[in-house]
Amino acid sequence: MNAWRTVQLARHPARPTGGELARMASDYLFELRGDGHGRDDPSVLAGVAVVSDHHLVLVAVDKGRGTEERKKRRQGMPLPEGFHKARRAFSLASKLGLPLLCLVDTPGAFPGAEAEEGGQARSISRNLARLVTLPVPILSVFTGEGGSGGALALSLGDVVLMMENAYFSVIAPEGCASILWKDAAQAPQAAEFLGLTAPELLRLGLVEGIIEEPGEGAHTDPRSAALNLRRAVGEHLSLLKSVPLANLLERRRERYRHLGHFVELEDVEEVQDGSLLASSS
Predict the structure, then answer these.
(1) How far apart are CA 39 and CA 52, in angstroms?
(2) What is the largest distance, in Å, between two alpha-carbon atoms of the chain?
(3) CA within 13 Å, CB half, 39
């Protein structure tokens, strides 16, 4: 299965949403609303839950079902108040000493003017800072789309899992194609170049595991998909809860310090077109 096919399955209109998976996978779920400043973003579901006998705090991006609901939830693109709401849930997990489970399915943070005026980038960065130091086990699962900073704001976990047909990318394939080839129709080729599939991210060490989906994808049997998710959550939380907190925090810091690779260039010269040319490395 190529990368573009994975993108299509992650976006399938019948694919179970983060909210639906959260409810089907939970023995108990009590939803909490509000960002603490008089606003609430319905694209982010937050609450306390029981999953596979684990009491936890849950945050899930919910695209909604049907035209009206998807419009209301902006197809799973959170506003700043959505990230504030998630951060309140993070703090609740810390206060209660409960593990945090994040289910990620978003094309990205909402790009509208009102989101920028509300401090979208600041909201995302505050979530990242909070997750790095949160004194509880964190499990993040990509259940569908994983777009850029909007997804990253919920995915700095001690363990990061992906459902089989989920993806995670710094940019949507259409956006990448528009930049590289000035043609969004080249999105399938861009998807291959981006290396956004679960097997590729597992190979790179960016995720720890892949959750199998039934049939041709989660949309063909949502309850089985939720059962597989539930089982994976139970297994990984049992392991995470057995790690002493000090070790868990240190391991988390080291995990994110060592992600990615870079090369230092010496004798760098700027050429006329503004690009950099290295004579040695």
Answers:
(1) 32
(2) 63
(3) 14
Going by the DSSP 8-state scheme, the letter that residue 123 receives in this structure is H
d(CA 139, CA 213): 19
Instruction: Extract the residue ranges of the chain whose pLDDT is less than 70.
Output: 1, 266-281
CA angle 144, 249, 202 (to 5 degrees): 35
pTM value is 0.90
The 3-state secondary structure of 117-175, one letter per residue? HCCHHHHHHHHHHHHHHCCCCEEEEEEEEEEHHHHHCCCCCCEEEEECCCECECCCHHH
Gyration radius of the chain's alpha carbons: 19
Q: Residue type at 145?
A: E
Predicted confidence at residue 280, as pLDDT, reads 42
pLDDT given at position 268: 56
Tokens 């694919």: give the residue.
15
Cβ(15)–Cβ(217) below 8 Å: yes
Q: Which CATH superfamily is domain 3-280 in?
A: 2-enoyl-CoA Hydratase; Chain A, domain 1 (3.90.226.10)
Are the beta carbons of 61 and 103 closer than 8 angstroms? yes
Residues in contact with 52: Cβ distance below 8 Å, sequence separation at least 6, in sequence order: 27, 230, 231, 233, 234, 237
Domain locations along the chain: 3-280
Residue in the structure block whose two tokens are 């080249």:
186
Angle at 184 between CA 198 and CA 200, to 5 degrees: 15
Let me know: does 59 contact 101? Beta carbons within 8 Å.
yes
State the pLDDT at residue 263: 73
- From residue 224, give the alpha-carbon distance in Å to each of 94, 100, 192, 214: 31, 23, 28, 7
Contact by Cβ (8 Å): 236, 159: yes
CA distance 95 to 93: 6
Separation between Cα atoms, residue 108 and residue 111, nearest integer Å: 8
Q: How far apart are CA 130 and CA 57, in angstroms?
A: 15
Taking the CA atoms of residue 116, residue 43, residue 46 and residue 41 in that order, the dihedral angle to the nearest 10 degrees is 50
